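Known limitations

Files may contain more than one protein. Parsers should not assume a single record per file. Below, a two-record file is shown to illustrate correct handling: read the sequence, read the C-alpha coordinate line, then continue until end of file.
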Amino acid sequence: MVDRKEEDKGTGVHPGERGQAKPQEEKMDAIYRVTNGLAQQMEKARIAEYTQLLFSPWRLIGLNILSGAARGLGIALGFTFFAATIIYLLQMLGALNLPIIGDYIADIVRIVQHQLELKTF
Protein backbone atom coordinates (compact mmCIF):
# COMPACT_ATOMS: atom_id res chain seq x y z
CA MET A 1 0.00 0.00 0.00
CA VAL A 2 1.38 3.39 -1.00
CA ASP A 3 1.35 6.26 1.47
CA ARG A 4 -0.79 9.26 0.35
CA LYS A 5 2.02 11.70 1.09
CA GLU A 6 4.31 9.85 -1.27
CA GLU A 7 1.60 9.66 -3.90
CA ASP A 8 0.94 13.45 -3.86
CA LYS A 9 4.60 14.55 -3.86
CA GLY A 10 4.96 14.73 -7.62
CA THR A 11 1.58 16.20 -8.48
CA GLY A 12 1.80 19.45 -6.53
CA VAL A 13 -1.73 18.91 -5.25
CA HIS A 14 -2.31 18.86 -1.53
CA PRO A 15 -4.05 15.79 -0.16
CA GLY A 16 -7.26 17.72 0.73
CA GLU A 17 -7.49 19.26 -2.76
CA ARG A 18 -7.40 16.03 -4.69
CA GLY A 19 -9.84 16.21 -7.61
CA GLN A 20 -10.68 19.89 -7.03
CA ALA A 21 -7.98 21.49 -9.17
CA LYS A 22 -9.93 21.28 -12.42
CA PRO A 23 -13.26 22.55 -11.06
CA GLN A 24 -11.49 25.48 -9.38
CA GLU A 25 -9.73 26.38 -12.63
CA GLU A 26 -13.03 26.17 -14.47
CA LYS A 27 -14.67 28.42 -11.89
CA MET A 28 -11.82 30.92 -12.18
CA ASP A 29 -12.11 30.86 -15.97
CA ALA A 30 -15.86 31.46 -15.72
CA ILE A 31 -15.34 34.36 -13.29
CA TYR A 32 -12.70 35.82 -15.61
CA ARG A 33 -15.03 35.60 -18.61
CA VAL A 34 -17.90 37.23 -16.72
CA THR A 35 -15.76 40.09 -15.37
CA ASN A 36 -14.14 40.60 -18.75
CA GLY A 37 -17.60 40.78 -20.36
CA LEU A 38 -18.77 43.29 -17.75
CA ALA A 39 -15.69 45.43 -18.32
CA GLN A 40 -16.30 45.46 -22.06
CA GLN A 41 -19.96 46.39 -21.57
CA MET A 42 -18.97 49.26 -19.27
CA GLU A 43 -16.51 50.52 -21.87
CA LYS A 44 -19.22 50.38 -24.51
CA ALA A 45 -21.59 52.30 -22.23
CA ARG A 46 -18.95 55.02 -21.74
CA ILE A 47 -19.67 55.31 -18.05
CA ALA A 48 -16.29 56.94 -17.38
CA GLU A 49 -17.03 59.75 -19.84
CA TYR A 50 -20.48 60.22 -18.32
CA THR A 51 -19.11 60.58 -14.79
CA GLN A 52 -16.50 63.07 -16.01
CA LEU A 53 -19.30 65.05 -17.65
CA LEU A 54 -21.22 65.13 -14.37
CA PHE A 55 -18.22 66.74 -12.67
CA SER A 56 -18.12 69.62 -15.19
CA PRO A 57 -21.50 71.37 -14.89
CA TRP A 58 -20.81 74.15 -17.44
CA ARG A 59 -20.00 71.62 -20.14
CA LEU A 60 -23.13 69.67 -19.22
CA ILE A 61 -25.26 72.82 -19.49
CA GLY A 62 -23.71 73.69 -22.86
CA LEU A 63 -24.32 70.22 -24.26
CA ASN A 64 -27.91 70.27 -23.03
CA ILE A 65 -28.54 73.66 -24.67
CA LEU A 66 -27.03 72.43 -27.92
CA SER A 67 -29.02 69.18 -27.88
CA GLY A 68 -32.22 71.08 -27.01
CA ALA A 69 -31.73 73.49 -29.91
CA ALA A 70 -31.07 70.60 -32.30
CA ARG A 71 -34.15 68.76 -31.04
CA GLY A 72 -36.31 71.89 -31.44
CA LEU A 73 -35.02 72.46 -34.97
CA GLY A 74 -35.70 68.84 -35.86
CA ILE A 75 -39.24 69.04 -34.53
CA ALA A 76 -39.90 72.29 -36.42
CA LEU A 77 -38.57 70.90 -39.70
CA GLY A 78 -40.44 67.62 -39.24
CA PHE A 79 -43.73 69.34 -38.48
CA THR A 80 -43.28 71.69 -41.46
CA PHE A 81 -42.70 68.74 -43.79
CA PHE A 82 -45.65 66.87 -42.31
CA ALA A 83 -48.00 69.87 -42.57
CA ALA A 84 -46.91 70.61 -46.15
CA THR A 85 -47.56 67.01 -47.12
CA ILE A 86 -51.02 67.06 -45.53
CA ILE A 87 -51.91 70.34 -47.25
CA TYR A 88 -50.69 68.98 -50.58
CA LEU A 89 -52.81 65.85 -50.17
CA LEU A 90 -55.84 67.93 -49.20
CA GLN A 91 -55.40 70.08 -52.30
CA MET A 92 -55.21 66.97 -54.44
CA LEU A 93 -58.40 65.61 -52.84
CA GLY A 94 -60.08 68.99 -53.25
CA ALA A 95 -59.32 68.91 -56.98
CA LEU A 96 -61.25 65.64 -57.32
CA ASN A 97 -64.53 67.45 -56.54
CA LEU A 98 -65.85 64.78 -54.20
CA PRO A 99 -69.40 65.74 -53.15
CA ILE A 100 -69.28 66.22 -49.37
CA ILE A 101 -65.62 65.68 -48.59
CA GLY A 102 -64.46 68.01 -51.36
CA ASP A 103 -66.25 71.05 -49.88
CA TYR A 104 -64.93 70.28 -46.41
CA ILE A 105 -61.37 69.87 -47.67
CA ALA A 106 -61.63 73.03 -49.78
CA ASP A 107 -62.67 74.99 -46.68
CA ILE A 108 -59.73 73.63 -44.72
CA VAL A 109 -57.30 74.49 -47.53
CA ARG A 110 -58.74 78.02 -47.81
CA ILE A 111 -58.39 78.57 -44.05
CA VAL A 112 -54.80 77.33 -44.03
CA GLN A 113 -53.83 79.41 -47.06
CA HIS A 114 -55.45 82.47 -45.53
CA GLN A 115 -53.49 81.97 -42.31
CA LEU A 116 -50.27 81.53 -44.28
CA GLU A 117 -50.90 84.77 -46.18
CA LEU A 118 -51.43 86.64 -42.91
CA LYS A 119 -48.19 85.34 -41.43
CA THR A 120 -45.97 86.31 -44.37
CA PHE A 121 -44.56 89.79 -44.13
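...continuing to the second record:
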Amino acid sequence: MKKPNRLMTFLLSLIGQSWAYDTVDEVQEVIGKNAFDNYERRVATHRRGAARLTDSLAFQPGLVALHDELNDTWHYLMALQHRARDLGHPALADSMKRAADNTVDVMTAVDQAAEQTVPAPEVPLTR
Protein backbone atom coordinates (compact mmCIF):
# COMPACT_ATOMS: atom_id res chain seq x y z
CA MET A 1 0.00 0.00 0.00
CA LYS A 2 1.43 3.31 -0.96
CA LYS A 3 1.11 5.83 1.82
CA PRO A 4 1.49 9.58 1.63
CA ASN A 5 4.58 10.97 3.26
CA ARG A 6 4.31 13.94 5.60
CA LEU A 7 5.37 16.44 2.95
CA MET A 8 2.75 15.21 0.48
CA THR A 9 0.07 15.23 3.19
CA PHE A 10 1.04 18.80 4.11
CA LEU A 11 1.08 19.99 0.49
CA LEU A 12 -2.30 18.43 -0.22
CA SER A 13 -3.76 20.08 2.89
CA LEU A 14 -2.60 23.49 1.65
CA ILE A 15 -4.87 23.18 -1.37
CA GLY A 16 -7.77 21.64 0.52
CA GLN A 17 -7.08 18.10 -0.65
CA SER A 18 -6.32 14.85 1.12
CA TRP A 19 -4.93 11.45 0.20
CA ALA A 20 -7.24 8.89 -1.42
CA TYR A 21 -6.51 5.18 -1.81
CA ASP A 22 -6.92 3.32 -5.11
CA THR A 23 -8.15 -0.11 -3.97
CA VAL A 24 -10.64 -1.57 -1.52
CA ASP A 25 -7.77 -3.50 0.09
CA GLU A 26 -5.89 -0.25 0.75
CA VAL A 27 -8.99 1.38 2.27
CA GLN A 28 -9.59 -1.66 4.49
CA GLU A 29 -5.94 -1.73 5.51
CA VAL A 30 -5.79 1.93 6.52
CA ILE A 31 -9.10 1.71 8.42
CA GLY A 32 -7.89 -1.41 10.25
CA LYS A 33 -4.50 0.16 10.96
CA ASN A 34 -6.12 3.32 12.35
CA ALA A 35 -8.41 1.27 14.58
CA PHE A 36 -5.89 -1.24 15.87
CA ASP A 37 -2.80 0.96 16.14
CA ASN A 38 -4.65 3.21 18.57
CA TYR A 39 -6.68 0.52 20.33
CA GLU A 40 -4.69 0.22 23.56
CA ARG A 41 -4.25 3.98 23.94
CA ARG A 42 -7.97 4.60 23.39
CA VAL A 43 -9.01 1.88 25.81
CA ALA A 44 -6.66 3.22 28.49
CA THR A 45 -7.71 6.84 27.94
CA HIS A 46 -11.43 6.15 28.14
CA ARG A 47 -11.15 3.76 31.08
CA ARG A 48 -9.13 6.35 33.04
CA GLY A 49 -11.78 8.95 32.28
CA ALA A 50 -14.64 6.63 33.22
CA ALA A 51 -12.88 5.65 36.47
CA ARG A 52 -13.21 9.27 37.62
CA LEU A 53 -17.02 9.21 37.41
CA THR A 54 -18.51 9.14 40.88
CA ASP A 55 -22.29 9.18 40.38
CA SER A 56 -24.89 9.10 37.63
CA LEU A 57 -24.82 12.87 37.12
CA ALA A 58 -21.10 12.68 36.36
CA PHE A 59 -21.92 10.72 33.18
CA GLN A 60 -24.19 13.46 31.88
CA PRO A 61 -21.74 16.06 30.44
CA GLY A 62 -19.91 13.45 28.39
CA LEU A 63 -23.12 11.88 27.12
CA VAL A 64 -24.55 15.28 26.16
CA ALA A 65 -21.31 16.15 24.32
CA LEU A 66 -21.29 12.74 22.62
CA HIS A 67 -24.90 13.25 21.49
CA ASP A 68 -23.89 16.57 19.94
CA GLU A 69 -20.94 14.94 18.13
CA LEU A 70 -23.22 12.17 16.84
CA ASN A 71 -25.70 14.79 15.65
CA ASP A 72 -22.92 16.50 13.72
CA THR A 73 -21.85 13.11 12.31
CA TRP A 74 -25.44 12.50 11.13
CA HIS A 75 -25.50 15.85 9.31
CA TYR A 76 -22.11 15.08 7.73
CA LEU A 77 -23.27 11.65 6.54
CA MET A 78 -26.48 13.12 5.11
CA ALA A 79 -24.49 15.78 3.23
CA LEU A 80 -22.21 13.06 1.85
CA GLN A 81 -25.24 10.98 0.88
CA HIS A 82 -26.82 13.86 -1.05
CA ARG A 83 -23.55 14.70 -2.80
CA ALA A 84 -22.91 11.06 -3.74
CA ARG A 85 -26.41 10.87 -5.22
CA ASP A 86 -25.88 14.17 -7.09
CA LEU A 87 -22.65 12.77 -8.57
CA GLY A 88 -24.39 9.59 -9.74
CA HIS A 89 -23.07 7.15 -7.13
CA PRO A 90 -26.27 5.48 -5.83
CA ALA A 91 -24.53 2.58 -4.03
CA LEU A 92 -22.27 5.04 -2.18
CA ALA A 93 -25.29 7.21 -1.36
CA ASP A 94 -27.15 4.16 -0.01
CA SER A 95 -24.16 3.27 2.20
CA MET A 96 -24.10 6.83 3.57
CA LYS A 97 -27.85 6.63 4.25
CA ARG A 98 -27.42 3.36 6.17
CA ALA A 99 -24.56 4.90 8.16
CA ALA A 100 -26.72 7.95 8.92
CA ASP A 101 -29.63 5.72 9.98
CA ASN A 102 -27.34 3.74 12.29
CA THR A 103 -26.02 7.00 13.72
CA VAL A 104 -29.61 7.97 14.60
CA ASP A 105 -29.97 4.66 16.46
CA VAL A 106 -26.77 5.32 18.44
CA MET A 107 -27.81 8.94 19.05
CA THR A 108 -31.16 7.74 20.43
CA ALA A 109 -29.45 5.28 22.78
CA VAL A 110 -27.05 8.00 23.99
CA ASP A 111 -30.01 10.35 24.51
CA GLN A 112 -31.74 7.70 26.63
CA ALA A 113 -28.55 7.09 28.61
CA ALA A 114 -28.18 10.83 29.26
CA GLU A 115 -31.76 10.98 30.51
CA GLN A 116 -31.05 8.09 32.88
CA THR A 117 -28.29 10.08 34.55
CA VAL A 118 -30.91 12.20 36.30
CA PRO A 119 -31.64 10.61 39.66
CA ALA A 120 -35.23 9.49 40.12
CA PRO A 121 -37.10 11.62 42.62
CA GLU A 122 -37.79 9.90 45.87
CA VAL A 123 -41.44 9.02 46.25
CA PRO A 124 -42.68 9.40 49.79
CA LEU A 125 -44.28 6.34 51.29
CA THR A 126 -47.97 6.79 52.05
CA ARG A 127 -50.31 4.70 54.14
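Parsers that stop after the first record will miss the second one. For reference, the second record is described as follows. The chain has five helices and no strands.
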